[in-house]
Design a protein that fits this description.
Length: 468
């Protein structure tokens, strides 16, 4: 049966686009190198019609399909299992920008478009597509929507879900749903778009999306501020929200150790501020001139210093300097990977709970696993922290993870849920947190999720083993 299916797939998309054998790590190993699978075949269709034909062929053969975009996901959701029986469906050849409607402020892109290419296409028309994250040079719009990605601009523009107006989807039976509406208002029954956004490839395959665009801000300016505590950083956030209003587009928190990993692994990067326990990156986007917006940010930071929220600060003097500050922040996950295997917690908390959570959790983890190194950074403005752990200096990372990961997760997630938070803020559930969701999710919610999955994918062939 498998050989017959592979032959059929070759007929459908061309033999050169059906890959088998060794050397497929780019598709079969996840970004963090924690999941290593083996596919029956990697199939690379060229358009939505070919995607539909591939899915129909797999459904007829009873073979599971794992959709994949840029393979930058962090929860093991986009690589096949080790059985050699799943088809990995790569969307990267669906990479056309189909339309930009400047009057309607919308852009329609195919699922395999790299996020940066979508940003650039909007920028070329003097418009803004604000979704932005460190993996933007390789992640795809389809993957962003499948994970409901967040990133650095959620504070002002919302996450991927809020930036999506319409979708085109191939169902698990291989039908094509064309829902590429650019309407802001459309109450015609259940919102299927919102069902597919965040479904992580378990309900169908996104082949294109209509996305919201915004007027491009006249000027965007960035600053770094040094704070003594998370409490002071939250105070700065409140002050910035009050003074800058919707102009505040980014507010990122970085703990000292997180930045020290960047210094260790990327020593060529600048070090704009002296060491501080916490560093905040603020971004202001406004309608005034760059000089005027820079002055606004400087005035805010002076006020924050008067109120003892900030000890030291630097405002980027040029766009190049702004990029350099963002580059520091975005290098943290890469520096962490260079440092070795680690435990990631992508958590959300009410902003009001974060200042208490951070020192309390650090104390508890030091008692449980002395020497474990906490790497804490993230989107403080959204209440989203990446609260990660690196093995103690000198320890063998995979042995440390094998011995302690489950207990550490238990401690962190217990506390997060006690505070009304979430154990998956923006990365999704994938394979990594599936059991956590099954164990901790509300039975009512899980029951509804399983009913939806069974209704849309009764054969269970769409990215099995993920989410539910
Ligand atoms: P993949 O990794 O290929 O897939 C992810 C999931 O989506 C899988 O379950 C896959 O099956 C499914 N999928 C992919 N394409 C489709 C499709 N067309 N239809 C249906 N299902 C599909 N995330 C954030 O939210 N915020 C961040 O700030 C952030 N920073 C990151 C920084 C780095 C350095 C890295 C490596 C990742 C980061 N991420 C972040 C993780 C983020 O989820 C991904 O980068 C991105 O959203 C996934 O896109 P992708 O195309 O790589 O998807």
């Amino acid at each position: 049966m498998s050989a017959t299916l592979v032959d059929t797939l070759r007929t459908l998309v061309g033999a050169a686009q059906v890959l088998q054998g060794d050397g497929l790590d780019a598709y079969e190993v996840d970004w963090r190198k924690r999941y290593r699978g083996h596919a029956l075949a990697v199939v690379r269709p060229a358009d939505a019609a070919e995607v539909a034909a591939v899915v129909r062929a797999c459904a007829a053969a009873g073979v599971a399909v794992v959709p994949q975009g840029g393979n930058t996901g962090l929860v093991g959701g986009g690589v096949p299992d080790g059985s050699g029986q799943q088809v990995l469906l790569s969307l990267t050849r669906l990479n056309r920008i189909r339309e930009i409607d400047a009057d309607n402020l919308t852009l329609t892109a195919e699922a395999g478009c790299v996020l940066q290419a979508v940003q650039q296409a909007a920028d070329d028309r003097g418009l803004l597509f604000p979704l932005s994250l460190a993996a933007e040079g390789s992640c795809t719009i389809g993957g962003n929507l499948a994970c409901n990605a967040g990133g650095t601009q959620v504070l002002r523009y919302g996450n991927a879900r809020e930036l999506c107006l319409g979708l085109e989807v191939v169902t698990p039976q291989g039908e094509l749903w064309s829902g590429l509406s650019g309407l802001r208002k459309n109450n015609t029954g259940y919102d299927l778009r919102d069902l597919f956004v965040g479904s992580e490839g378990t309900l169908g395959i996104i082949t294109a999306a209509t996305l919201k665009l915004f007027p491009r801000p006249a000027a965007t300016v960035t600053a770094l501020a040094a704070c003594d505590s998370v409490e002071a950083a939250v105070g700065l956030l409140n002050l910035a929200r009050a003074r800058l209003g919707p102009g505040l587009t980014g507010f990122e928190l970085m703990q000292r150790f997180a930045l020290s990993l960047v210094e260790r692994h990327f020593p060529q990067l600048p070090k704009p501020l002296p060491e501080a326990p916490w560093t905040v990156l603020l971004e202001l986007a406004g309608t005034d001139t760059e000089e005027a917006e820079r002055e606004r940010l400087a005035v805010l930071l002076e006020l924050a210093m008067e109120q003892a929220l900030v000890n030291d600060a630097v405002v980027a003097a040029s766009i190049a300097q702004s990029h350099a500050l963002w580059h520091l922040r975005e290098s943290i996950p890469l520096a962490q990977s260079e440092e070795g295997l680690n435990i990631k917690h992508d958590i959300a908390l009410p902003v009001s709970a974060i200042a208490g959570f951070v020192p309390r959790m650090a104390k508890r983890l030091q008692q449980a696993t002395p020497g474990a190194r906490i790497v804490c950074f993230g989107h403080l403005g959204d209440g989203n922290l990446h609260y990660n752990l690196q093995a103690p200096e000198g320890a063998v990372a995979d042995e440390f993870l094998a011995a302690h990961e489950a207990h550490i997760n238990e401690l962190v997630y217990d506390e997060v849920l006690r505070l009304g938070g979430s154990f998956s803020a923006e990365h999704g559930i994938g394979a990594l947190k599936r059991d956590e969701l099954a164990r901790r999710g509300s039975p009512v919610v899980l029951g509804m999720m399983r009913a939806i999955k069974a209704a849309l994918d009764p054969a269970g062939l769409m990215n099995p083993g993920r989410v539910v």
